[in-house]
Fold:
Amino acid sequence: MNRMNLIATRIPQQFQKSILNSQNTSRLLTTSTLNAVDKLKAAVNEYRIKNDPQELPSRVKKDILHAADFDHNGQVTAEGLQRIVQNIGAQHSVSKEDVHLIVLELGNQENTGSKDSVSVNTLLRVL
Structure:
């Protein structure tokens, strides 16, 4: 049994999902950022179910995040992500503050020196 599974057996069920989903990042996300990521996940899934239920969830996520990469440099800015949130009709469930938290905290984890963008691959990993 690996260390994360051993720890997870001692953690209440409602917290296991967030912690285990975050194990691929360099550190755990703050609670507010985890909540923001969960809101974004739900919005993307709702968009997929409503607009293209036959498509794989991973394909929809990739398409949405690549559309948010306006400069085609592999980086998504808060403005790009916010525009996509509006385009999929999720501006009422995912706030601008949520988008900024996601980009700021994940961008800081990448150690690229940029606090105003996050890589498409990092976003795909957490979504």
